[in-house]
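In the current project phase, our protein records have gained a structure token line. A sample record follows, to show the layout:
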Amino acid sequence: MDGGLKAIGLTNQRETTLVWNKSTGCPLYDAIVRMAARTSSICRKLGQELPGGRTHFVDACGLPISTYFNAVKLLWWKENVDAVEEALQKGDALFGTIDTWLLWNLTGGIDGGGLHVTNVSNASRKMLMNLKTLDWDQPTLDTVGIPAKSLPKIIINSEVIGEIAKGWQIPGVTISRCLGLMSWN
């Protein structure tokens, strides 16, 4: 591969999220983009029921309850899409932002044990990551009823992720980085 492509990096919109079946690799429903407001009733309900209201998760996760973040999107799928709830119950659901789904597919997906990973920049926008430990916050997961096994492993932003699997046009090329797009608007 002298002089050829050595590595690639990915970037993505951090709040657009997806849930898919790990056995088929197919999404269980359409992705939900960052600005979708369909989760507003879930946010209202959580804000009314939890101590601290919409700031309940701020100490652990740094984020208020908002339609913007991924946890409430997964709750919406659980409540509105039977296939998602069934896959979560069976342990067949994988959840992540678009980077996670792309990395899982590029590193092998269903054919080669794709890597179910995300980095800190993406995980920090799920409203599920503990800012002190940089891991999934179990009390938050318990509160919202999201199984940790459906979530990607969190890796550091500078970590080399893996290689592109056979079956793609550039097998063996290193996936060197993946970062979430930071919006300044």
Q: What stands out?
A: Residues 70-80 form the longest helix (11 residues). The longest strand covers residues 174-181. The radius of gyration is 17 Å.
